[in-house]
Specification:
Elements: H1 9-20, H2 25-36, H3 46-59, E1 63-67, H4 73-82, E2 87-92, H5 95-107, E3 116-120, H6 123-135, E4 144-147, H7 154-163, E5 171-174, E6 182-185, E7 188-191, H8 198-203, E8 208-216, E9 221-229
Parallel strand pairs: 1-2, 1-4, 2-3, 4-5
Antiparallel strand pairs: 5-9, 6-7, 8-9
Bound molecules: S-adenosylmethionine (SAM).
Residues 42-44, 67-68, 70, 73-74, 91-94, 97, 122-123, 148-150 line the site of S-adenosylmethionine (SAM).
């Protein structure tokens, strides 16, 4: 396919959404209610959310950690990937976002906090508390970590994700990792200097192996990091 066909990206997305996405009522409700409650429209796209749900299912994860709940849209998808056999722990710094997320999850029939718990606080303050609970045997380690908040701390969240992981085979997923490789300049965007972005930092981390998948969708060009603990 010639690269010019990228012009059809919106049509492809609409086609795929129409044919592949079922059981969307609760997810659509989460989006509409989030908009009504004044939350920004920055949740994962429907197909992207489905992708994370499938990954969780494929990985056989039982405990999922999310950074950044917003209105709970991705948390619903992650919980669906668990097929009722695990729990999502999501960290959200904004109280109103947390409250809207809980309402949206409950509308979707997700049990809060048994199937999804939303912990209120800044990621870097809550993560050490989770580590202490794991140390004390009060909490299980995480098999799948979904990082979707606070871009400047992507590396710190990644590092915590590996430390709180269940060891070899645990997955760490960073959303918006490609957009975060760029510095916004006066004249367009520029790639950050080699070694400054999370991809370079992960590449120097011997605890994991990882890849980048660039994505093109109706909304934007971006991409993810997917890493697995060795
Ligand atoms: C991109 S949105 C998350 C979208 C959500 N994962 C989804 O797809 O439905 C980012 C969220 O991270 C939250 N956030 C920002 N900084 C944070 C921090 N330091 N700790 C925890 N959450 C944070 C924001 O309030 C926002 O709700």
């Amino acid at each position: 396919m010639p690269i010019e066909n990228i012009q059809f990206k919106g049509d492809v997305e609409a086609h795929a959404e129409t044919h592949l996405l079922h059981d969307q009522e609760a997810l659509n409700h989460a989006l509409h209610n989030s908009t009504k409650e004044g939350l920004p429209p920055i949740s994962v796209s429907p197909l992207h959310g489905k992708f994370t749900s499938i990954l969780v299912n494929l990985s056989g994860a039982r405990n999922v950690l999310e950074l950044g709940a917003l209105g709970g849209y991705s948390a619903i998808q992650l919980a669906r990937g668990l097929k009722g056999k695990g729990k999502v722990t999501s960290i959200e710094v904004d109280r109103h976002h947390r409250d809207v997320a809980i309402a949206n999850l409950q509308h979707a029939g997700v049990k809060v906090p048994d199937e999804v718990e939303i912990l209120l606080g800044a990621g870097l303050e809550v993560l050490p508390k989770l580590a202490a609970e794991i140390e004390e045997g009060k909490r299980e380690r995480f098999d799948f970590v979904f990082i979707d908040a606070d871009w400047p701390n992507q590396w710190n969240y990644f590092d915590w994700g590996v430390k709180l992981s269940n060891g070899p085979g645990s997955a760490i997923y960073i959303d918006n990792a490609v957009k975060n490789m760029f510095v916004e300049g006066v004249v367009g965007d520029h790639l950050k200097e080699d070694g400054l972005d999370v991809v370079a930092q992960i590449g120097a981390d011997t605890r994991v192996e990882a890849t980048v998948i660039q994505t093109v969708a109706a909304k934007s060009y971006d991409g993810i990091v997917l890493a697995v603990v060795k």
